[in-house]
Structures are given as C-alpha cells and as structure tokens.
Amino acid sequence: MYDKSMTLATPSSAPFHIMTKPMGPLCNLDCKYCFYLEKARLFPNNERFKMSDDLLETYVRSYIEAQPGPNVSFAWQGGEPTLAGLRFFKKSVAFQKKYAGGKQIENAFQTNGTLLNDEFCQFFHTEGFLVGISIDGPEKLHDAYRVDREGEPTYRRVMRGIELCKKHKVEFNTLTVVNRLNAREPLAVYRHLRDIGSAFMQFIPLVERQADDASSINGLDLSHPPDFDLPPDRKSEPEVTDWSVLPRDLGDFFCRVFDRWVTRDVGKTYIQLFDATLGKWLGIPGGPCTMAETCGRGLALEHNGDLYACDHYVYPRYRLGNIMNEPIATMADSETMQAFGDDKRDKLTRMCQRCDYRFACNGDCPKHRFAWTDDGDYGLSYLCPAYLQFFKHTAPAMQIMAKLYQSGRSPTEIMKHSFK
C-alpha cells in the first residue's frame, strides 16, 4: 500500500476523467435495459455497496493531485448516487475544498431524479453542481423501460425531481437513452425534452447483446465487449437484445431531430452529438470519447476503490488496480491503459480507415464494434449505418455553420438557410 499521507503524487501526463460510483451498481429503479445493475454479481454476496469516508477522502485528494491542469471535474454516477445520502456529498465537497490546492473544482451528478428532494437541490445550487437527469421522453415512452423495483412507472417522480431543480435554480441537463421504442418517435422525444426546459441534451444509443460464454461464466446476462484479437465465429455471435436500438431507426432519429434543431433551435438548445460533429468539421479537439481517435482517458471508479478502464468495461479483465494501493495517475498512465486507448485507432477496420467520415466518427465506441464488414473484417460498429446516414445528411449544414464560425459570424445564421 502506498503512503497517501506523504508528499504530493506526480500528476498524470495528460488530463483524464473518472466516473465515480459511490454506491456501485445499486439503484432504486430496475430499468429493463440497464447494463450496470447486474454488475453486483461480480462482487461478493456480502458486499457493502457504499464508498467509505476514508476511501472518499483518499479518492478526492488523489484525483485532484493526479490532474495536470488547473481544472478538476468530479462525476458522480451509479447505480443511483443519491442512495449514498446527502451527508456523503457534503463530505465530498469538504474534502475537495481541503485538497483543492488552488485548482478549480467542478461537480457533475447523474441521477434518475426520483429521490431528489429540497435538501439535495438546495445543496446542488449552493455548491454549483451540474445535475443530469435521465429521462427517455414523454410519459409513455419513458415508462416503457424505466420502472422501479416493483415494476411501477417512474415518469411522474422524475418530473417532480426536475421541478425541484427548477425551484432551487439547479443547473440541469437531460440524458436520453435511445432505445428500440423511443427511436421511432424522434420529434415527440425532442419536443418533450425542450418543453420541460432541457437546454442541453445527450442522446445515448442503447446497444446490448445477450450473454456470451465469458459473461455467463461471471453470472451475467449481457455480453462482454467484443475482443478484436479473438473474433467470434459469425454463427455464434451473441444476438442484440430486443430493447437495443436498430441502426436504421437511430439514423432516422438523429436526422429528424437535427432537421428540427437546425431550422429552429441552434444557439438555444445544445445537443452533444450535433455540437461535437460541428467541432469535428472545425478541427476543434474534444467532444465525447466515442468520437475521439483514441480512448482510455475516461475511467470508472467503483465503490470499493477498484479502478477500471471504462464505465462499459467494468469486468475483472479491465481492472487496473485499487486507489488505496496505487496512485491514480500511475494507473491512468499505465501501459495497459495506453494499449487500451490506442486499440480504438489501431484496430479500425479497413472500411473505417477509408471512410469519408472517419475524421468525425473514428469508428464509434469499441463496445459497439462487433459487426463484420464486406471485406471480412471483424470490428465494425453495429451502429455504422446510423452514423453514416447522420454524417452524410448533416454534412451540407455542418459545412455552412463551420464557414460562418470561421468568418467570425454566428452559426445561428444557419436558421436563415432553406434546406430541402
């Protein structure tokens, strides 16, 4: 065990991000499509799923020390992080202030919204937390999959949480899982999010596969991420679940929402995919990890201090170590993490390498790369048809907005153009 009480640790070679799960996979809901709930099976039966105060303090100090720049962003997720209780997050802020060392600290908190109350929201406002609310659209679409442990709908409880955020002037955004059902009603979803006051929207495609042999050994119902070094037999490839979005529906969803946004809401509504795509056309670094050339700078921390390569790779094979035993920066900069991140670029299919939109897509998230190309290469994103449709469809408008920006004008002027 390294001595955390001694001198400051050496910072990482580059900024990185950790998604922190103070309650591990525990949640008060039982969303039918959730990939993380079953991760509880990877821990002992008597596991206490809550981060201890000692571990919290070690994490806060070590994470701040590990960041090479002046800004440090903490991201709290789950499971459901509100289950840790308000006291836990008051302690986390106290530790942040204790160890900030002149750095600017930010907090993002992703929640299903059902357990928010006045006390939590007042705290979020006072401490400047950015709160992400998970909501899948209008009531009928949201409640199709997002139910509680008794199978009861949750939409109205989520809306109560959103109203509490508004009451206490908490900055909030929305995260929408695009699934088999709501993907077919893009404008209903978009209008609803806009109408409830969401000015920042994330649309996350839902893709999960039935368990493969490796997952079954670990007692899981959903498949591990694909292994590019060991392509499966095409006949034995795990099937996608019936709640996963279909590529053609996802492509239509993105394009129809874009068409509404580009004619009415540019500058008023921030949609992560659209803004990130414009950034790619402008050559601006950044954007979500799924669109980056390499990955490996977005790690996941479990409640017990175990650090993993990614939120979607919380499996024994991808465990980097424990923050109580090793410095965070050492694990983030390890050869294992470097290789993990470089694989995203180095193992692109030939089809991806010659694609006109590689600069924007970069092959999508490796978790989704379980399809075969016509060349016979394994490792094409299952969602390739959707993203290809989106990038082709939006290219003319993106080029106009990029030229507006480069000439010192506002991309909002795009709304004056006519698209047919």
UniProtKB/TrEMBL annotation:
Pfam families: Radical_SAM, SPASM. The keyword S-adenosyl-L-methionine applies. It comes from the Bacteria. Residues 9-256 form the Radical SAM core domain. Its cofactor is [4Fe-4S] cluster. InterPro entries: 4Fe4S-binding_SPASM_dom, Aldolase_TIM, Anaerob_Ser_sulfatase-maturase, rSAM, rSAM_sf, SPASM_anSME, Sulphatase_maturase_rSAM. One of its GO terms (molecular function) is oxidoreductase activity. The keyword Metal-binding applies. Gene3D superfamilies: Aldolase class I. Keywords: 4Fe-4S, Iron, Iron-sulfur, Metal-binding, S-adenosyl-L-methionine. Belongs to the radical SAM superfamily. Anaerobic sulfatase-maturating enzyme family. This is Anaerobic sulfatase-maturation protein. It comes from Rubellicoccus peritrichatus. The lineage of its organism: Bacteria, Pseudomonadati, Verrucomicrobiota, Opitutia, Puniceicoccales.
